[in-house]
Specification:
mainly alpha; Four Helix Bundle (Hemerythrin (Met), subunit A); about 60% helix; single chain; Serine Threonine Protein Phosphatase 5, Tetratricopeptide repeat
Length: about 900
Amino acid sequence: LQMSGFIFIPLKKTHEVDLIKPFNTYINTVYETKEDDKAEIEDAVQELNKLRGKACCQPLDKHQSGLDLLTRYYDQLVAIENKIIISATQNPVVFKWQDAFDKGGLFFSKASLSLSDGAFERAAVLFNVGAFMTQVAALQPLLTDEELKATAGLFQKAAGVFYKLRDSVHSLVPHDATPDLCPDTLSACGAIALAQAQEAIYIKARKDKMKPAALVKIGAQAADFYSEAQKAISKDTVKGLFEKENYYMIVGKAFAYQAIAQYHGAEEHAESHHIGMQLSRLNEAMKLADQSRKYLAPSILAEQLAAIPKAHAAAKKDNDFIYHERVPDVTTLPALPKAAVAKALPVTHPISPRFKDMFSSVVPVQVHNAMQSYEARKGDLVGMQTMRMREATQLMNGILASLNLPAALDDVSSTETLPESIKLKSAKVKQSGGVTELHRLFNDLPALYKRNEEIIDEAARLLKEEESSDNNLRAQFGARWTRMSSQQLTGPLLQELGKYRGILATASNADKMVKTKFEQNREGIELLSRAESELRSSIPSQQPHATGGGSESVRRLKELCATVAETIAERDRLEKELKDKNCDIAGDFLKALADSSLLNEEQISKEKIEQIYGPHVARVNESLNKQEGLLADIQRTNTMFCAEKSNTGGGAERERILKMLATAHDAFLELKGNLEEGTKFYNDLTPILVRLQQKISDFSFARQTEKEDLMRQVQQNIVAGDAGTGSAPAAAAAAAPPRPPPPRTTSAAGSAPSMQQPSVEPPIAPPRTTAPQYSAPPPQQQYQQQQPQQNPYNPAYQQSPQQQQMLHPTPQMGQPMPPPYYQQQMPYGQPQPFQQNYYQPQYNPSIAAPYPTFPGAYSANYQQPQYSPYPPQPQYGQAPPPPGQAPSAPPPNNNLNPFQ
């Protein structure tokens, strides 16, 4: 038993939660991690899961090592606050925490709150950090200076923790919190810790034999702090949470330290030989000491209080026999000065001095989203410039093909029926597989489309069956069917399915566009795919021309065609440079986030893009501007060339076929690229749809398991309600059938806690409604054997790690513009798995892009469980308040702190 009688705050209790699968799934879904980082992150997740079990679910040694575990876990929670989001709609991990002060009752288990919210977990763990600080402080023997310093420091830190929670709990726990997380309760805990910190400082000062002038200030402030603590725990919202012994301890110490302060004030008067004022203060100290003994155990502050009657007897004897001074009324004396040496120390991150973030390789979500937006903006620019160049090249090739260039130039310089340019085009087509390859790619598309469509249909069927089952049971049980409706939970999943149906529909239209273009160019592609002899025989032989190959127009056209080829090659190089250009912008975003809590992603991204891609955009513009003059020269020179040629009927047919073959060559390359891109699109979409189907399948399984569990509970409630029809207690029992009470556990009231944690709580059935459920604990014989049972599939409360991430889809990121096809916009878009549309690129392309457009990101508002107020706490007798305090004097300087 401590002679000081320090009070400690009990810990909140929780249950094991598997963080491994939901965290790994979330990280793999949201972040694009490298293989090396992925293994490191998976190890970090496992370590975090173990750390939570040790810090929150296992008994902690009442020592600094136990506190280090708690603070390390809390620091890690703060470090991942902006990296791994935990909420009902993203990465739902349900944390269930019991009220620290509730001991349960005959019919009800301990009050608890279950939320899928990382902020709630941080608030609960921070409460335990403060509570455990009071427990470690209360265990200090107070024999050495180091122990006294540790006690005062821990109590001051605990006060800071509770006051921080008091000021922020409404933002951390927006729902109706358990009583231990209410602002009034937290304020009371902070007041108690602060008063005990001041008391520890007084004990140190008295041990160091400081002068009465200093002791009176420290003691008077300790009395004032205890009076504030008494007021805090006497509020209606807090009354009943603390044990009566703790309440009496606070009231008794308020009286005791008033008496001690008066005693030291009397010592000051004795030094100045004011015997009358000395006796007046000692008389008051005697009365206050007598009041304190009504509440304190005899061992508490026994030495300090015992000195008061001795000093009173000696002073009275001296005054009676020697001084004969008049004893003034104590109310006429100056108020005792006070010095608040103990301060509530602010909570800084990290709390643990040797903390190291296990997820240092993961950037905050805000930075990650900014990087995604930057990539989208960059993709827009690269895609736009690439499309501009390809459209210009397509236009240029089309004009050349319409003019039968450069094949017409071959005719004037050669008598060969098959021009060299057409021969090269045919060889290129045959090398790429020819028309047979196009047929193969076309034949693969329907099966790929159907495979993806079947996955979506199966996922939709699972959701429809689950909703139908839920609606039937809701109609059957009525108000007793208290779980969240399927409509509240499946909206985002249905929206995601609709999004992918839209993507498939757009892809199907793109398939038809490609098929139409193939039919338009089938004849020319088939000719180019034949053997050279067959191709030659299909082209009419050339007729004699009026000009040879050495005219000025022919020479100029050859130069212009060479310039066209050079321009196309330059654009290919420029396109490759645009795609290969990389920049690590994460450092810029991290620096901006460190400088300011607001991250101006748009400004930073635009400045970086302009810096990196500005010169390339200028080169693109220059190339496009040159093309206008180049095409004008080609058309003007070709007019001269045509006027020089002899034009016969056979020559016209030959020119038509050569133009068709040139156009077919360009169409073949374009179609082959389109079909390959379409095949890749469908193959990339399949694993995304499989993951979505698995998510929906797991969700349906979770709801099925939850349904079976809730049906059993509803049937038990119906039986319990029928047994007690017509009485209010029976109605209450319907929600929680009475069972034998749990074994009684005790908590120290006026002494330090034991070195071992009390036994774990009995298994608690998880809540099933949006109000707190106070179900009865299991029979006593199972108390030590049965592990905590939780429903792992209730979406509003506990879920298994296999289901944590399955209840709500991960938000979608805006799709960056994919690169267009060679000489034509691409008809397929690359599916982007599970990203969020934080930024949607906006631009106005010169032609409509036929890509399958991912529908806009969605946001679903889930109705969070609303918790009704807790039942009133039991009342106990109100102790008489301490007498009024004298007015506070200005605080002295810091040299009163015995630890400095």
